[in-house]
Structure formats: structure tokens, C-alpha cells
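This protein record is not my work; I was only asked to verify it. Where you disagree with what is written, explain briefly why. This is what I was given:
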Amino acid sequence: MPEGCEVFSKPSRETLATAQSPTEAENFFGEMEALMSEFYNVDGQGGRMVSPFPFNTTNSMESNPEYGNIDDLSIKSRVEQLTQLTDEQRHALMEHAASFFEIPPDLVAFTEVLRTFALCNFSSSMIEEATMKRKIAKGTTALALAILKDFKGDRIFSSPVKSISQGKGTHLVTVTLESGKQLQSRLAISTIPWNVFPSIQFFPCFPSAKPLANGISPPSHDMLNPLGSSAEVATSNLSVLAAMVPFARAS
């Protein structure tokens, strides 16, 4: 358990959270560390064989064909493979692993959990330090609001992008929203999540090798990978147009 941390337990949404004693907390983390070790051990080497390059998923896939065998696993489906565990242990393991992402365990790719573990040098103590000890003082909402406060351009939310086209003239880029509204600019910087990428039409189309080279067809693209790199993070299809707004005109 990270030094200086307090641990609270909350068996269900209906019950109140209660503080655990240091002994209870140590026991919990000891049991959970053992369960997580089994969870990661998909290759008999604690995940090290299938994810040797956590900073480069493509290289991990190329270096070990076994990566493809875990490609479709979610947290839930991986836990279900651990038939030696009790129902209580499986439930606790699923909820704990999914707590890093704050979404249901059937929506998180197992490969993403494993990659997060690999990024922490396959160390359970380091992953707890990285995810639990240090937090943004006023939460992620405060961080988002601070970023929005610094940005002086226009902002558009809840506006899924339908297509992005490149043409000629002063305004080279046209972004068409699902509402039919168009935004035009001389340039656009895309931070569209790769798992959302296939839902957007690009004109002209990318060469067939381009999506593969950039990981646009990532593992388990129907699952969320919230802690991935900028090329792998999965979110909903929002129009992220901040970089083009200073030049944009609507039509």
C-alpha cells in the first residue's frame, strides 16, 4: 500500500464508504496483488512476453504472435478465464482492474490494463504509487476547466464529426459535422481517437497502408483504452477542432 494513503471500502453503491484499519488495508492489498499477478500472467511470464514494448504496441505485436490471442479479451473475459478463483475473488478482481479506468470491466481491453502494468515496469508497487498516491488536488474536472480557461478560441462540444476533406483555395480543410454544419480552415490538427477513426470519412482517402502504419486498426477497437498513448486513447466521437478554430468560418 502506498505510504500515507488512506483506504476506504464500499461494498456497494447503496452502502456508505468506511475507512479500513492499516491491518485491513495491508491484507486487502496483499490479496489483490496476488489476484492481479494471476490476472496479468496470461503468458506464464507475468505479461512480459506478450507486452515487451509497452511504449510501442506495434512492436509488441510483431515480436510475439501470441499477442493476437489476447487481442479480443476484455477485463471481464480475462477474469472469466481464471476458473480457479472463487466468484467473490473474480468480482473483486474485475472491479479493482476496472477502477483504473472508471468504466465497466467488459468495456476495457485487457491489453490496455497489461500495457499500463508494463509501463510501470511490471511492478505492482509502482502501479499503485502511480495511480493512487498522487492526484490532481481538485480533480480532473479542475484540470479540464483550467485548460478551457487558457484557451481563447471557440469551442464546440457534443458535435460528432462526419467527414474531413482537403481541397484547394484559401480554406483547404472542411470539417462536416453530423448536424450538417461545416467548418472551414486552412489547416486542422486531428486528435481523433483511433478507435473512432473508422466512423469518419476522409477525402481524399488515406492510402491503404496508412491506417495500419499508424495503428488505426488497434486491438479490441470496440473496447475502450482510456490510458493509451495519443494514438490509442479511446473516447467518444467528439469534434476536436481547437487547433483549427482561429482560422475557421462556419457555413
